[in-house]
Amino acid sequence: MLKKILILILLICLATGCTNLSNQDLDGIVSSMLEKENTLYNVVFDGYKYYLPKGLKFVSKDDYNAHLLDGKNNSFYLYVDVLSYYNNTKLDYEENKDAYYSKKLDYRNQEGYLEITEIGENGYYFIEYMYHYGKMEAYVKEEDIKDAVTYMSSVLSSLTFNRTVLETLIGNNIIDYKEETYDVMKPKGNNVTQDTYLDYVERYDNYEEYGNNDTDEDSIDINITE
Hints:
By secondary structure, the chain is α+β, with helices and mostly antiparallel strands. The chain has helices at 2-16, 26-34, 82-87, 145-158, 163-170, 194-204, and strands spanning 43-45, 48-50, 56-62, 65-70, 75-80, 101-107, 110-119, 124-131, 134-141, 160-161, 222-223.
């Protein structure tokens, strides 16, 4: 009986992200989150799925982009690069010595990078986190960086693709496939200012809202067929 209780507690921890990472530095948070296989998911779209952890709220979606919010109303933007996944495009990233934090990632045969840049002198930082053909961006205060990186790690480590479905969506129409006019997966880094970031936010905020923004975070279960 005791063994069953311990297993149940472990499963609850995995599902809610209750592992305490607050005492770790960014290297420790990233390695702890990405070294372990994350098979959880509660958001499903055609061709891919991922896990939205407790603390993040799904706001809106447009094509392969999504707008998320945390409990402090920090915005997170997720872009899923299905075309690069389909073409098995390799990552080309050089660590930025001028950044607040910059690291090339390589875990479980998946590549990515985490780059954090201070924007202006108002104590805000621009986070760019790319892993396994997904990229998340956020603009947060310094004290929120660790929480933001933890959220991003949880989402990106759970991102899973369905090549069969993607084959039907883009495989036969790859020439006509709609591509973004900018390469979102490349780091913007020191080229980002507060004004350009706000323009970027405005672009995302034109997305159509999906569902109820007041959804209880404990019961998020988005299953959408587009």
